[in-house]
Design a protein that fits this description.
219 residues, alpha/beta, 6-stranded parallel sheet, 6 strands, 14% strand, globular
Length: 219
């Protein structure tokens, strides 16, 4: 099968790309120069060529925490474009082929912050919540064409970026508040994405699946 992964150069995205390649699939993971998700013209140009994609994983995302009153229009629009609106635009290009083939799998990498709240996360949380709503609506509208759509909400994933952005003390607090007492491994996300995208998934659709080691339900 042909797989399209946006954000495949990030740590989680690369783990997803590697998992699908390991399972024997052909993966397309364009760089930001090849496919600028903040530009509708770039998206339109990229999808002018014939793209017979069976599985689409939208993993691209940006998160620039800022107090709400300091959030400018440019930052808000860029976050919405990359995190959610680009996914909507790309999906419109991919759906006709999926409908014709009566098979399609779409996996959107959302975030725990689409259901939880934290200061300075307005733009990010709104963009991810929009992605989850889009997931549910697609699932309802195209389920009869054997197109299954789900989102994954990662918790605190053990990446270099997480280690860079959070102090050792904060990471220790997160681990203490996580029932499995560890950060989430990137392969946890990748293997979940692979199963949801595979033909072994017959009926899971419209779901926002939390992969956080129980962090969101503890206390």
């Amino acid at each position: 099968m042909n797989i399209l992964v946006t954000g495949g150069n990030g740590e989680i995205g690369k783990a997803i790309v590697d998992e699908f390649i390991y399972q024997g699939h052909q993966v397309f993971s364009p760089s930001s120069k090849e496919l600028d998700l903040n530009s509708i013209s770039s998206i339109e140009s990229y999808f002018k060529k014939d793209n017979k994609i069976n599985i689409f994983v939208h993993c691209a995302g940006i998160n620039n925490p800022v107090p709400f009153l300091d959030l400018d229009d440019h930052s808000l629009e860029k976050t919405l474009n990359i995190n959610s609106l680009s996914c909507i635009k790309i999906t419109k290009f991919l759906l006709p082929s999926m409908i014709e083939n009566q098979f399609g799998r779409i996996i959107n990498i959302s975030s725990l912050w689409s259901i939880l709240s934290s200061p300075k996360r307005t733009a990010y949380s709104v963009s991810k919540a929009a992605l989850d709503a889009f997931t549910r609506n697609l699932a309802v509208e195209f389920g009869s064409s054997n197109i299954l759509v789900n989102s994954i909400l990662p918790g605190f994933v053990d990446t270099k970026l997480t280690r860079k952005n959070l102090s050792d003390k904060r990471i220790a607090e997160i681990i203490e508040d996580t029932p499995i007492h560890r950060l989430i491994d990137m392969t946890d996300i990748a293997k979940t994405a692979y199963f949801l995208g595979s033909d072994k998934n017959y009926s899971i659709t419209g779901q926002s699946i939390v992969v956080d080691g129980g962090y969101s339900i503890y206390r």
